[in-house]
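note to self: dont lose this again. the chain is below, predicted strucutre after it. 130 aa total, dont forget to put it in the shared folder this time
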Amino acid sequence: MDARGVGLGILDTIVKGFLVIVCIMMISKYASVAYDYGYHIYNQTPASQYDTRTVTISITDSMSVTEIAELLENRGLVKDKNLFWLQERFSEYHGMIAPGTYDLSPSMTPDEIIGIMCAASIEADKEAAE
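---
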């Protein structure tokens, strides 16, 4: 084997080793992010436990859950709009957010916020059933 072949063999091994290390780092990072999201979907915490101020928001009929989540994040009611979207998706209130004006607080959990925004929809369903 000549020097060029040995050099290419060593370079090939180094590149493969580097790629393996990068793949392991990416898998570790995204597994951690996925675990964190999964944990917080069911173990909900308020955006601010001690901030009891009231924030008034208005939801229109044309707003999607993504837009609602962005509004809530901008007003300081939730920490992460993507996490809120997932929490709504996996909640018992999925697809039931009703348009209206709501008084919410950063000390509420996302599930409490979703429940308040769905209360009008649930009451309308009960009245229609009677």
